[in-house]
Write a structure and sequence with these properties.
With 104 residues, the protein is of the alpha+beta class. It has two helices and six strands. The strands form two sheets. It has a four-stranded mixed beta sheet, with helices on one face. It has a two-stranded antiparallel ribbon with strand order 3-6. InterPro entries: Thioredoxin-like_sf, Thioredoxin_CS, Thioredoxin_domain.
Length: 104
């Protein structure tokens, strides 16, 4: 499951929306990949750290590993990441990008 944790007021989240929608459309018939998003201003997850928006995390089903998505937010990089089951260089947790908006 790939989850975008977003805030409705976040400009970067709004910019990502059409790309993320295209990604969801591409994988809508794939039983192994779910594309989801969650309003982090209305929901909290105890074990998931969200420090900026958007935060994108991949929850692998085979080993329950949670992988931060840290590639470019392009359709091509999302596809490369998902097709590699999150095993892509720069996919592991790193420092948050400066362009992301701070969580309120």
């Amino acid at each position: 499951v790939l989850v975008e944790f977003y805030a409705p007021w976040c400009g970067h989240c709004k910019q990502l929306a059409p790309i993320y929608d295209q990604l969801a459309e591409k994988y809508k018939d794939n039983a192994d990949i779910v594309i989801a998003k969650m309003d982090s201003t209305a929901n909290e997850l105890e074990n998931i750290k969200i420090s900026s928006f958007p935060t994108i995390k991949y929850f692998r089903k085979d080993d329950n590993k949670v992988i931060d998505f840290n590639l470019d937010r392009t359709l091509e990089d999302f596809i490369k990441f998902l097709d590699a089951n999150g095993e892509v260089a720069d996919a592991e947790p790193t420092e948050e990008s400066e362009e992301e908006e701070e969580a309120a």
